[in-house]
Amino acid sequence: MAKYALSSNFSTSLRRLSVTVVMASQVNEDTSWLQRLFPFWKHEIYITDPPGTNSSLISVKGLESMVYLTYIIDNYEVLPDVVIFTHGGRYRWHHDDPLYDNARVLSRLQIPYVQEQGYVNLRCVWTVGCPAEIHINRKGGDKDLANGGPLPGAVYAAAFHELFPGRDLPSRVGTSCCANFAAAKSAIVARPRQDYERYRRWLVDTDLDSSAGAKVLEYSWHIIFGKEAAFCPLARQCYCKVFGMCNIPLEGPGTSKAMYSLPKFATLPDGWPWVGWDNQWQNATSVGYIPGEELIDSLPTALW
């Protein structure tokens, strides 16, 4: 049975720095892998759709953004050295890994680098979000947004003025999607708690629906934590610095087919990664092979 082999640098960093994973999950998602594979981190798992309730703070507007803001507000005085903000579900289409495996993404994360930089995106690939997702002067409408398209510039601009009063409006905004990132305590507390409370009030009060409000924040977190509006580090630098993977082959400044390809569908097949797109068994060890890494902690019980 294959196990994760954590690097010595990763293991050493864990002894030095406190880390909490803040996860926005849903009631039907299996989050047991987090405790099983990362018992040395603290976990704060927020269920966004508790059954039988309609008044939970975490079940209102804003999707993962409400979770992240609530954690920061409630724990502002007792934050760990590093906070990892991520979605529930181990396998999702946007995770920067050949198998879309968030466990492998987290196992590579260079915690001291997060503390040094203040903020890092958990995606290095530019697919969706980079080099610029939002062009302020781009014409667009609600139809684009309703169909999952980028935020119209006017929509983001209006929100930006409320979120960042007095700050100059950028001409374009970009960062790799999809609201999975890590932030150091120093970057979080560089803003007063009142700022995060104001962001949360905006999220609740805005006329934008839950998804659109979350998308505004998705393309604002990097700004909140001190990065420029168009924050798209070169993939080579990102993989090396953020994940300790300095020999990844690349096809362009933000492209590595060895690490990420946009999947056929946003929803992965049941049984992934041992069940492929044709609903047939596949050798996940071969499909997701990266030299020097073990892939899967265990086979799904159903496939023994």
UniProtKB/TrEMBL annotation:
A Pfam family assignment: DUF3431
This chain's protein is named Uncharacterized protein
Lineage here is: Eukaryota, Fungi, Dikarya, Ascomycota, Pezizomycotina
